Amino acid sequence: MQSSERLSFMPVSLQDMQERGIQQLDFVFISGDAYVDHSSFAAAILGRFLESKGFTVGVIPQPDWKDCQSFTVLGKPKYAFWVSAGAMDSMVSNYTANNKPRSSDVYAHGGVAGKRPDRALITYTAKIKEAYKGIPVIIGGIEASLRRFAHYDYWSNTVRRSILLDSKADLLIYGMGEHPIAEIAQGFREGKSITQLRGIRGTCWRTGKKEDIPAGATDGQGKFQPTIFLPSFKEVSANTPEGKKSFAHSYIMQEKNTDAMSAHILVEQSEERFVVQEPPAFPLTTEEFDAVMELPFTRRWHPMYDVPAENGKIGVPGLSEVKFSLVNNRGCFGACSFCAITFHQGKRIQCRSHDSLIKEATILTGDKEFKGYIHD
Ligand code: SF4
């Protein structure tokens, strides 16, 4: 493996850090996916995004969750760990709809299954806290987003409480992360503690004190919107007709507050604690979206995957699906009940400029594997 090739990726080892002259990283990403430096992979997007703002960032992809040392290979970061289960919820990734273990994982080295734990955010956060007592852990990605409040969990056939409480993470980012991650990182740079990083759009935080909960927030049109208390976890998890009605009512309130321009702060009580959801992050402007997609991605998997995995295959199969496609937009107003897009990316459609798309398409045509078409 050429050291010069590795230098174009974010560090994944102490040696990588030394070669870049980094003593201590500002942030470390833990991801349930293999490390692919492409704009369809969150650790790559958000890591590159933070680098563009002058932060140093390392990646620990698919750590061995049974071994605490796997979480310390880059040392203790100066500010915090960002933790994601990966591009998919870990239970969706690990099990079929019939609750059978999947035989492969397209986001792992060689497509080998079993490289990420069930309920990855809970497991990863516990291991980090075991390794580094007191370090802030911030969870995000689709698993955090869709489990931010009490939610129905298909695999256990129960209503589970917020993953922020179950994981004991310090902060949760929901939706697409650029705006909140930039604000949180800047807050750390200014010397703020994790509890001073409340009030950031696109985040959820927890508290045991009702007096911490703000009375409301100013929406995207300058109007004060009072805080809304959702039905409590006890109400929505009751296995009664009233419980099911409360669950439906809570979900409707959450869905009605997915637009950054009009959303309220939402609060859900769970026993003696409260999960507070700040209004969604404002959508990226076209210029911001272009800038994110034009970050210096190598557009390939990390060279550590150029050797055969246990099954003899090289690489990360999930890359082939996106390598020759373009991300044109985010968000959807549809809010179809079976789809996560509105709940994760918001109601407003955000688009890139034609110039930015043409620039990326031109890069694709220069790849020696390009076959002459850009697919969906
Ligand atoms: S399925 Fe999803 S992306 Fe399609 S219209 Fe419905 S909410 Fe939008």
Task: Give an overview of the whole structure.
The chain is an alpha/beta fold and 376 residues long. The chain has one domain. The protein has 14 helices and 17 strands. The strands form five sheets. It has a nine-stranded mixed beta sheet with strand order 3-1-4-5-8-9-14-13-12, sandwiched between helices. Strands 2-15 form a two-stranded antiparallel ribbon. The chain has a two-stranded antiparallel ribbon with strand order 6-7. The model has no long low-confidence stretch (mean pLDDT 95). The structure holds iron/sulfur cluster. Iron/sulfur cluster binds next to helix 13.
Q: Roughly how many Å apart are the termini? A: 32 Å
> Could you give a short account of the major beta sheet?
9 strands, mixed
Q: Note the overall shape.
A: globular
Radius of gyration, whole Å? 20 Å
Number of helices: 14
Query: Which stretches are poorly predicted, pLDDT < 50 over at least 5 residues?
Result: none
The counted number of beta strands is: 17
Organism: Candidatus Treponema excrementipullorum
GO molecular function: 4 iron, 4 sulfur cluster binding; catalytic activity; metal ion binding
Protein name: YgiQ family radical SAM protein
Domain UPF0313: 9-325
